[in-house]
């Protein structure tokens, strides 16, 4: 860049034309593009994408640059010299930082991946899809049949599970193999630009068979160009462990594991650097799955660490932790990361995970039910990002069916009285946990809806819990009054009463209403509700008829 007074002069390479004109010229003359030239062009494009996608590149001042998504890769934006043996990607006007995945619709529809049409989201995998379309076009001189502008609903109907691209027009076995890897619906399963670059770089007479190349690609998503000595020094605040994590150097990572808690000047730890670089083995080494099966992804969910969750999803989605965990008063066994997020009420993380883990029935409750039953309407959650109702909304489409939630249950949970009135023909239905709409009304404190659902009174869920017990547990005295006559005195599977639940949860107003009816009922161990404060360590109990007067918590 040259400057002269108020003028700037940028010296750039000059190119003869663009790839679109090159393809058009071959189409007009009906001459196929030679395989050697096709491979050369594809390799250079993959090399260029691998560079812009990597998070460890550096500018001329030595500043670390983020991973960049082009978002409009197409032949028009690829410049080439006269002989066609050198190409470069141009027109980065629509590019963005790959770590900030805002909803957006940008680019040329013929080269857009499915996720953009449906979710308006882009990622490095979106550029890979566009690269695949270009390779297809170089091989056939026309676009694939599925490359067009799709309305979201039409895209969902066409690109269903099990979809495979029509590659019958591709004659070369190697090119077909590469495109089969690229044109998959799950962005996380597409090869990286670095993977594709390595394939083209290693294409030679000894490894030119499709099977050999296929094994190269399947050996494990090796990130492109593991950082060289120069790149390892680009961030002076990186510790030796961070440099090893970025480079995928397992031996070096093991040597420096004791430093894994340190942060660089961007507040990133080695774990985040390894995840960004795509080193799954380093991620597992830095934050190993514990003896209960809890993965780094699940731990990130528990911390509500959205950025870390997004980085770890490709490596650890759909994994199940067989151990037991208690979140917001509910026990969970054999849970996924999505189930944990739902129980916590972390709506932003649920939105990230639902497309990967939603709708699959595990042992125990679906995420939808965990979100619904861990929500306490009167609880002052400290975290402003806790939003159980939003989690339920996000999960309803994927998990409503496997949870056996009726429209009546969903309306009851939301407190939508009008929809409840129009759905009363669904009374008596139970979800997979045995819950009725009345139980959800009681748990949420919807008194008007309880009046409409009185006929469900006396029903018990799979744990033999009643609507009254949940009203008492969550502190809804108005609901307790409405349910007491029909459900007072009933016992859950552990011999517990609604009064015991109210005492244990320190809900004195509910306890006072229940005392006369249930204060003398003994549980499975022979204890009454009056014995619970003693077991919880209360040092002074004044014995008076009303249980509410017994609460003297220290």
From TrEMBL:
GO terms for molecular function: ATP binding; protein kinase activity. GO terms for cellular component: ribosome. It holds the Pfam family Pkinase. Keywords: ANK repeat, Ribonucleoprotein, Ribosomal protein. ANK repeats lie at residues 433-465. InterPro entries: Ankyrin_rpt, Ankyrin_rpt-contain_sf, Kinase-like_dom_sf, Prot_kinase_dom, Ser/Thr_kinase_AS. Residues 1-203 form the Protein kinase domain. This is SSU ribosomal protein S8E. It comes from Giardia intestinalis.
